[in-house]
Design a protein that fits this description.
The chain is α/β, with parallel strands linked by helices and about 700 residues long. The protein has four domains: about 5-50, N-terminal domain of TfIIb (Single Sheet), CATH 2.20.25; about 65-130 and about 330-450 and about 470-525, Rossmann fold, CATH 3.40.50.740; about 135-325, Dimethylsulfoxide Reductase, domain 2 (3-Layer(aba) Sandwich), CATH 3.40.228.10; about 575-685, Barwin-like endoglucanases (Beta Barrel), CATH 2.40.40. About 30% of the residues lie in helices and about 20% in strands. Strands 5-4-16-15-14-6-7 form a seven-stranded mixed β-sheet, covered by helices on one side. A six-stranded mixed β-barrel has the order 21-25-22-24-23-28. A five-stranded parallel β-sheet has the order 10-9-8-12-13. Strand 4 (about 65-70) and strand 5 form a beta hairpin. Helix 3 (about 105-120) packs across helix 20 (about 500-510). The structure holds ligand MGD (2 copies), iron/sulfur cluster and molybdenum atom (MO). One ligand MGD binds near residues 13, 165, 171, 196 and 212. One ligand MGD binds next to helix 17, strand 15 and strand 21. Its EC number is 1.17.1.9.
C-alpha cells in the first residue's frame, strides 16, 4: 500500500488555512493537520476537515460534453476544442465575455485574463468578486489608495477592541474567529452588530441587533459620539489624513444623534453609547467586516464609513488595528490581483492607462494586438446587457462560477444566459449554469493541481498536487493553453507548468515580483506587496503613509440612504440572505460531501417569533416567500435569533434558491447587487 501526506491550502474560504491531504494508493482519502502554518496552526473548520469528500465523488465531470439536440453527449477533447475554436473565432471581440474564478489558482486566472484580452481581444472579463467585495476594492482604494485588507490575520489577536459588523466570522471565517477569541483572552472588548444573533454574537461582549441597511447611520452615530467625547486621534487625523472637516459636517448633524440612529437602526441608545466608548478608549482596535457591509446599493458608502471611523480613531498602520475586509473565496483576492476584472490588468494596473496597456501588449506579443484600452462590463452589467440589448453580447466562457444560483434574480439570469448564441462552462461538476451550456469542459480540482492562491490577508500560498484528475479532466490552465493554441496562439501560451506561468506573472506584476515558488514553499509564505526577492513581504499596509498619490487617507462625508427596495404593505418585511457554516455557496462541493450534507440537508427562512405568531406560522412549516422577482416554497425557522421585521435565507440550496427572490439593484460605482436587503412577504400555503 502506497501512503503519503501532501500539504496544501484549503479550497474554501479566504482565511487560507493549510492541511495535509492523505493519499492512499494514488487517491485522496482524508485530511490531517499540518501544524506549521501560522494562520491556523493545525486547526481547521468542518469544511476543511471534510475537504477530501467531494474530490472523488462519482459526479465529477470526466469527459468534455457537447450539447446535441438539447442533450449532452460525450466528446473527445479534439472535438470540443475544434467546435469552441471555430465558434469563438466567429465573434467580434466585444461580443465575447469571460468569467474567471475565485475557486482556481492565480496562474489560471491570469491565463483566463490573457485569453479574454489577448486571444479574444475582448474588454469583458469579470468574476464573482463583483458580487462580493467590489465595494471594498472601490471604497478602500478611494480612502486609502489600496483596496485590500490592511492588516494580517495574526495581529487581530493583538487588538484591544474588535468591532465586527456585517461579518458572521465564526461561521464564515472560523479560523479568523479563533483570533477574536485570542484577542478576548488578552483582554479585548468584542462588539458585534448584525441583524441576527449568530454564533459570532455568542462571543461578543456587546451585541447590537439592527435592521439590515442602516449601517451608515450606525457608523455616523458612533463617530458623532466619539467626537463629542474627544476620543478621536487628533495627531493621526492631522498628520495622515485629509478632509476631516467635511466628515465632521455630516456626522455631527442631528440626523446622526444617537436617539435618531436608534430610531433608524433599532439599536438601543445605551448600546450605541457603550460601543462608542469602547471604540474610543480601547486601542488599537480592529474592524472586521464582510458581506453585511458590501452587498448593498450603498456598498461603497458603507465601506468608506468603515474607513472613516478607523481613521478617526487612528486605527491604521499598526498591529491590532486596521480595516479588515474579510475576503470570501479561497482565491478571490488572487483573481482580483490577476486582473480578472473589467478595469485592470494584474496588480491593479489600469486598462485605460496607456502605459499599462502598452506594457501588457508588448509583454504578451500578440501579433494582432490586444483588447482596446477601455473598460469592460461587470458580471452584473453583462446580465443586464444580455436581456436589455439583445445581440450585443453573443458568447460567454465561464470557468468555475455558477451564476444560476449565485447571481441576484435568477429568473433574469436564466433569460440572459439562454439568450446567448454560444456558452462554454468549465467546472468540476455539472451545475445549474452548466445545464444551459453548449459545451462543458471537465476541470481538475484543487487536490489535483499545483499553483498558488492568495488569501484575504494577501498571503500567497501553494497548492500541491495530491492525485490525478478523474477520467480525462484537465487542469484549468492546461485547458486554456490548449484552446489558445487551437486558435493560433500557441506561442503566447507556451506553458508546461504552473510555475512557468507564475514566472510570467512576476515579470508583469510589481507587487508579486519578489515571489518565487521556492520562497512560497515556507510555511508562512509571503504577503504582497513583495517587490524584490530580498523583500520580506508586507503583512501590514499603510504603516508610514497611505498608498494614495498624496500619501494621505481621505475622509468621505457620507449620508445614510435606505436600500433600493424597502418594505411596504404588499411586501412588509426586510429580506436578507447569506451563508451557514456547513455549506459553500451554490453547494456543488459541500452538498457532495456526505458529512456536511447530512448535517444540513436543505434550506429555510428565518422568521422572528413575534412575526411568525402574527402570521400564524409554525416552526418547520413550509411557507411561500414572495418578492417582486419570484417566489419559493421553503421551511420556516421560527426563532428569536433574528431581528423582528427581518427575514433571512441561506442561498446555498437550489430547491429553495434565495436568489429567485433577491433584487438586482446595483451600487452605482461597484455594481454590486443588493443581496442584503429587499422587501418580502411570506404566505401560508393552504391545502388545495
Ligand atoms: N461556511 C461558509 N463560509 C464562507 C462562505 C460560504 O459559502 N460558506 N463563503 C465565503 C465568501 S465568498 C464570503 S464573501 C464570505 C462572507 O462572509 P460573511 O459576510 O460573514 O457572510 P454572510 O452570511 O453573507 O453575511 C454576514 C452577515 O451579514 C448580516 N447582515 C445582513 N444584512 C446586513 C446589513 O444590512 N448590515 C450588516 N452590517 N450586516 C447584515 C447577516 O445576518 C450575516 O450574519 O464567507 C466566506 N466563507
Ligand atoms: N443571495 C445571495 N447570493 C450571493 C451572495 C449572498 O450573500 N447572498 N454572495 C455572493 C458572493 S459573496 C459570492 S463570492 C458568490 C459566489 O458565487 P459562485 O462563485 O458562483 O459560487 P460557487 O458555488 O463557489 O461556484 C464556483 C463554481 O466553481 C466550481 N469549481 C470549484 N473548483 C473548481 C476548479 O478547480 N475548477 C473549475 N473550473 N471549477 C471549479 C464549483 O463546482 C462551482 O460550480 O455568490 C454570491 N451570491
Ligand atoms: S476557516 Fe476557511 S480556510 Fe480554514 S479550514 Fe475553514 S473553510 Fe478552510
Ligand atoms: Mo464572496
Amino acid at each position: 500500500m502506497d501512503f503519503k501526506y501532501v500539504q496544501t491550502t484549503c479550497p474554501y474560504c479566504g482565511t487560507g488555512c493549510s492541511f495535509n491531504l492523505v493519499v492512499r494508493d494514488g487517491k485522496v482519502v482524508g485530511t490531517q493537520p499540518y501544524d506549521r502554518s501560522p494562520v491556523n496552526e493545525g486547526k481547521v473548520c468542518p469544511k476543511g476537515t471534510y475537504a477530501h469528500e467531494f474530490v472523488n465523488s462519482p459526479d465529477r465531470l470526466t469527459k468534455p460534453l457537447i450539447k446535441k439536440d438539447g442533450k449532452f453527449v460525450e466528446a473527445t477533447w479534439d472535438e470540443a476544442y475544434d467546435l469552441i475554436a471555430q465558434k469563438f473565432k466567429s465573434y467580434k471581440p466585444d461580443e465575447f465575455a469571460a468569467l474567471a474564478s475565485a475557486r482556481v489558482s492565480n496562474e489560471e486566472n491570469y491565463l483566463m485574463m490573457k485569453f479574454a484580452r489577448g486571444v479574444m481581444k475582448s474588454r469583458h472579463i469579470d468574476h464573482c468578486a463583483r458580487l462580493c467585495h467590489s465595494s471594498t476594492v472601490a471604497g478602500l482604494a478611494a480612502s486609502f489608495g489600496s483596496g485590500a485588507m490592511t492588516n494580517s490575520i495574526l495581529d487581530i489577536a493583538e487588538s484591544k477592541c474588535v468591532f465586527v459588523i456585517g461579518s458572521n466570522t465564526f461561521e464564515q471565517h472560523p479560523l479568523i474567529g479563533r483570533k477574536i477569541v485570542q484577542a478576548k483572552k488578552n483582554g479585548a472588548k468584542v462588539i458585534y452588530a448584525d441583524p441576527r444573533y449568530t454564533p459570532t454574537a455568542r462571543q461578543a461582549d456587546l451585541y447590537m441587533p439592527f435592521v439590515s441597511g442602516s449601517d451608515v447611520a450606525i457608523l455616523n452615530g458612533l463617530m458623532q459620539e466619539i467626537i463629542k467625547n474627544g476620543w478621536e486621534d487628533r495627531e493621526f487625523i492631522e498628520k495622515r489624513t485629509k478632509d476631516f472637516e467635511k466628515l465632521k459636517e455630516v456626522v455631527m448633524k442631528e440626523t446622526y444623534s444617537l436617539e435618531n440612529v436608534s430610531k433608524i437602526s433599532g439599536i438601543p441608545v445605551e448600546s450605541l453609547k457603550t460601543a462608542a466608548e469602547w471604540l474610543g478608549t480601547n486601542k488599537p482596535g480592529a474592524i472586521l467586516y464582510s458581506m453585511g457591509i458590501t452587498q448593498h446599493t450603498v456598498g461603497v458608502d458603507n465601506v468608506r464609513s468603515v474607513a472613516n471611523i478607523q481613521m478617526l480613531l487612528g486605527n491604521l498602520g499598526k498591529p491590532g488595528a486596521g480595516v479588515n475586509a474579510l475576503r470570501g473565496q479561497n482565491n478571490v483576492q488572487g483573481a482580483c490581483d490577476m486582473g480578472a476584472l473589467p478595469n485592470v490588468f494584474t496588480g491593479y494596473q489600469k486598462v485605460i492607462d496607456e502605459a499599462a496597456h502598452k506594457k501588457f501588449a508588448d509583454a504578451w506579443g500578440f501579433p494582432d494586438g490586444i483588447c482596446e484600452p477601455k473598460l469592460g462590463y461587470e458580471v452584473t452589467t453583462m446580465m443586464n446587457v444580455l436581456t436589455d440589448n439583445p445581440g450585443e453580447l453573443k458568447c460567454m466562457y465561464i470557468m468555475g462560477e455558477n451564476p444560476m444560483i449565485s447571481d441576484p434574480d435568477i429568473n433574469h439570469v436564466r433569460e440572459a444566459l439562454e439568450s446567448l448564441d454560444f456558452l462554454v462552462v468549465q467546472d468540476i461538476f455539472m451545475t445549474e449554469t452548466g445545464e444551459l451550456a453548449d459545451v462543458i469542459l471537465p476541470a481538475a480540482c484543487y487536490a489535483e493541481r499545483d499553483g498558488t492562491q492568495t488569501s484575504t490577508e494577501r498571503r500567497v500560498q501553494r497548492w500541491r498536487k495530491a492525485q490525478n484528475p478523474p477520467g480525462e479532466a484537465k487542469q484549468d490552465w492546461q485547458i486554456i493553453c490548449e484552446l489558445a493554441a487551437r486558435m493560433g496562439y500557441a506561442e503566447q501560451f507556451p506553458f508546461q507548468s504552473a510555475e512557468e506561468i507564475f514566472e510570467e506573472i512576476r515579470r508583469v506584476t510589481p507587487s508579486y515580483a519578489g515571489m518565487t515558488y521556492e520562497r512560497l514553499d515556507r510555511p508562512e509564505a509571503l504577503h504582497w506587496p513583495c517587490p524584490t526577492v530580498e523583500h520580506p513581504g508586507t503583512p501590514i499596509l499603510h504603516r508610514e503613509k497611505f498608498s494614495s498619490p498624496d500619501g494621505l487617507g481621505a475622509f468621505a462625508p457620507i449620508e445614510w440612504k435606505p436600500p433600493a427596495e424597502v418594505p411596504d404593505e404588499e411586501y412588509p418585511f426586510v429580506f436578507t440572505t447569506g451563508r451557514i457554516l456547513w455549506h459553500w455557496h451554490t453547494g456543488t462541493m459541500t452538498r457532495r460531501s456526505a458529512t456536511l450534507d447530512t448535517e444540513v440537508p436543505t434550506g429555510w427562512i428565518e422568521i422572528n417569533t413575534e412575526d411568525a405568531k402574527a402570521l400564524g406560522i409554525k416552526n418547520g412549516e413550509i411557507v411561500r416567500a414572495v418578492t417582486r422577482r419570484g417566489s419559493v416554497e421553503v421551511p420556516a425557522k421560527v426563532t428569536d435569533d433574528i431581528m423582528k421585521g427581518v427575514m433571512f435565507m441561506p442561498f446555498h440550496f437550489h430547491e429553495c434558491a434565495a436568489n429567485i427572490l433577491t433584487n438586482n439593484a446595483l451600487d452605482p460605482v461597484a455594481k454590486i447587487p443588493e443581496f442584503k436587503a429587499c422587501a418580502v412577504r411570506v404566505e401560508k400555503i393552504t391545502e388545495a
